[in-house]
Amino acid sequence: MSDHAPALPPDHQTHPRWLLPTLTGAIIALVVASNMGNMVWASWVEDRPLGLIALNSSNKYLLITSISLELVPMVIVGTLRLLAPDPIFFAMGWLYGDRALHWARRTFPASSQLLDYADSDPRVVHRALNVLVVVAPNNLVCLIAGVARFPIRRFIVLNVIGTVGRILLMRWIGLIFEDQIEDVLDVVNRYQTWLLWGSIAAVIGIVVWQALSDRGLVGGIEELEEELGDD
């Protein structure tokens, strides 16, 4: 496959009126699911481990549930959950180009260096995406891959390989440290109520901070229509 990046779309192109609300709604649904997982993890980690990673498949939950889940359900559910946001952000970058990068700069300020490269010429990061899509296919990387017009089939293949590999790695580490994870679960059971309410309070605090400071996805969602909306 060639590493040549196709020409970028004109920044002034318009899209169907339903497209941006659909993308926004999908992002909101995933943010809600992720925050719900962060809230209920202490009570779900043993009783509903598959439900927990369906809500939030971050490494810590994949690791702590690895000793209680069967391999196949863990891989299937974890893969689907981890992949869920990737086509959304890839499509956002592909369709909205520079406007998506401008939105990302406000939403993910800690990644300004990567955005500088993508903003100056998305082709500069095109080769790096061959690695990033495998090892770190986060929201920002997927968005930049879309802006850079990274080949769709290659994006899918590398993303799936990297995602499944990540889940298998967490599974392997979990089995190695099974005794230590059991000790953590004993502590969670002992202080489950406190951890549950503490997690709820922490999530609410983070959401409020992001909303007030326009940081993170919670803050960024409020700016989507303004930044990406067609005039």
Topology, element by element:
Blueprint: H1 19-44, H2 49-55, H3 59-65, H4 71-83, H5 86-96, H6 98-107, H7 112-120, H8 129-135, H9 139-147, H10 152-176, H11 178-190, H12 192-213, H13 216-221, H14 224-228
Low-confidence region ranges:
none
The count of helical stretches stands at 14
Radius of gyration: 19 Å
Average pLDDT over all residues: 86
Secondary structure: helix percent: over 70%
Class per helix and strand makeup: mainly alpha
Fold and architecture overview:
The protein has 231 residues and is mainly α. The chain contains 14 helices and no strands. The longest helix has 26 residues, at 19-44. It is globular and about 55 Å long. It starts with 18 loop residues before the first helix and ends with a helix. The mean pLDDT is 86.
Task: Sum up the structure in keywords.
231 residues, mainly alpha
Characterize this entry briefly:
The protein is mainly alpha-helical and 231 residues long. It contains 14 helices and no strands.
